[in-house]
Amino acid sequence: MDMKVAKKKLALKEKYKLLTRDLGWEPSYQKKDDIYPYIKYEGIKIHDWDKWEDPFRLTMDSYWKYQAEKERKFYAIIDAHAQNNGHLNITDARYLSALKIFLQAISPGEYAAGKGFARTGREFPGVGTQVACQMQSIDEIRHAQTQIHALSNYNKFYNGFHAFADARDRMWYCTLPRSFFDDAMSSGPFEFMIAIGFSFEYVLTNLLFVPFMSGAAYNGDMATVTFGFSAQSDEARHMTLGLECIKFMLEQDPDNLPIVQNWIDKWFWRGFRLLGVVGTMMDYMLPKRVMSWREAFEIYGIENGGALFNDLARYGIRPPRGWDDAGKALDHMSHQFMLALYQYNFGTAFHTDIPTEEDMAWLDKKYPTTFNKYYRPRWEHIRKLKEAGTPYKNMGLAKLCQTCQIPTVFTEPDDPTQLTIREVDYKGDKYHFCSEGCQHIFENEPEKYIQAVLPMPQLFQAPLSGDLVAWMNWVGLQNGKDNGDYFGSEDQKNFDAWRDLATRNV
After folding, report:
1. Which of 54, 211, 328, 470 could form a disulfide with 296 if both were Cys (CB 3.0 to 4.6 A apart)?
2. CA atoms within 13 A of residue 351's CA, in its CB half-sphere
3. Spatial separation of the C-alpha atoms in residues 299 and 293, rounded to whole Å
4. Looking at residue 479, which CATH number applies to its domain?
């Protein structure tokens, strides 16, 4: 008589292999080079795709269950936020400028990353990388959706949120993140993995989804905190995926080392320049601040990055080019970026304001060697101009960096009184750069960057032909509502009136 034998329960690793790796097959009637034409495009040599180690072994069924639980919690909280007039619980409507920039610059970047990973997954032959790219693609699209949903409640009450998609494509300060993602998405699959997995996830989102989200909580914004916390576990997986890809390439062939090092150099600097936006949000746009941009970068950039490069040193990787210059810029970059945004605030879909005495005392405390010496005098001069009825507005067009597309407002690493402007002559044309880092990136791939569409020159071309009103209509900017100073704006007046009604009996 046969005995019934209980079926052995598969271990997680065995189950994962059956549901992912064992679904792959070798092509029989098409050449692999024809199926995956881009895999050799960048010069990376891979000898064994089975050596790819997946950092998070999730099967698709467990992935959906895991994410669905987070979705239920997320929508329950933002629904409660909306029903309880959560938009009046924030400290001050000045804070909303940071959210407007987030929606215009960061959320479209999440969506672009989703598109990029969907494409990259198709270009990799390894099953492990295909599954990882599929999950990250879904993650990135979900992040964009949850961010848009969370911030849509503010769009019902305040200006500047309505045309975020147009701003991403057309607004001058949004070309910084847009050029970052366009650069990544027009790269080969391995470089894309470093651009997003290393630069965007490790360098950038560390500061976005930890200290900035803490700042959102500190300012009473539970909607933003909720989508930030919902994304944090995904971001941990994304960072690990990017680092795994770097190690995988380095372990496959020694010839990969100089290629990977060059990408790390490039994408560290591109990510650092993009971080200037985050630094400005943290230092200038949070009425109540948790920490400065400098403190955040020292923890999440220098300490974490130093540990990362110490780990990669065994493969021959050194700290990226520009690492020292980034350290020297910490005391200056957010102030210089904010001064640029203020002088051009007639052309921004968010409000800016002159720091109060309390704000400047905090900035002096966090930047004791630089703020009072270099930046307080400028803000005090700008305040005097406004009080005299002649506010400081720069109606000229800024010179833009050909690589990162930021106005050339930054200073020399060792001389904060001298603007950094680098020039390169290429094929009879002159190109400008905000730093040696951006110049070096251009010189490595000039044919790529000469194709960049810069927003300032576009203003003088058809169909706009220099018409500022036509430009505002084109970018979806409501003049007098979305732009200009915060104090005296419609957002300030409405917030103060609604907060007053919500806190007293009429």
Report:
1. 211
2. 22
3. 10
4. 1.10.620.20
Q: How far apart are the first and last CA of the chain?
A: 86
314-335 residue pLDDT tens: 999 999 999 999 999 999 999 9
Give domain status of residue 17, yes or no.
no
pLDDT at 344: 92
- Say if CB 174 and CB 104 are below 8 A apart: yes
The C-alpha atoms of residue 501 and residue 461 are separated, in whole angstroms, by 48
DSSP state of 42: T
Q: Is the peptide bond before 463 cis (omega within 30 degrees of 0)?
A: yes
Provide the token pair at 383.
């305040």
Please check whether residue 140 is in contact with residue 114, taking contact to mean a CB–CB distance below 8 angstroms.
yes
Angle in degrees, CA 307, 310, 311, rounded to 5? 90
* Nearest alpha carbon to residue 56 among 153, 4, 133, 116: 133
State which residues form the domain around 262: 77-357+474-499
Convert the pLDDT of each residue in 336-347 to its tens digit: 999 999 999 999
User: Which pTM value belongs to this model?
Assistant: 0.93
Q: 466-473: long-range contacts at Cβ-Cβ below 8 A with a sequence spacing of 24 or more?
A: 471/347, 472/347
Rounded Cα–Cα distance for residues 330 and 346 (Å): 27
Rounded Cα–Cα distance for residues 436 and 461 (Å): 29
User: Considering the domain boundaries, does residue 64 fall inside one?
Assistant: no
Output DSSP code: residue 302. I
Reported as a single tens digit per residue, the pLDDT across 370-403 is 999 999 999 999 999 999 999 998 888 888 999 9
Q: Which helix (H) or strand (E) holds 416?
A: strand 415-419
- Count of CB atoms within 10 A of residue 33's CB? 10
Comparing CA positions, the residue from 158, 210, 268 lying closest to residue 491 is 158
The answer to the question of residue 410 being in a domain is no
- Of 420, 457, 42, 55, nearest in space to 235 by CA: 55
Q: Which two three-digit tokens encode residue 397? A: 């067009």
Q: Alpha-carbon distance 147 to 152, whole Å?
A: 8
Question: From CA 191, how far away is CA 189, in angstroms rounded?
Answer: 6
Tokens of 184: 């990544």
The answer to whether position 323 is within a domain reads yes
Q: What is the 3-state secondary structure (H, E, C) of 237-270?
A: HHHHHHHHHHHHHHHHCHHHHHHHHHHHHHHHHH
Token couple for 441: 């990136």
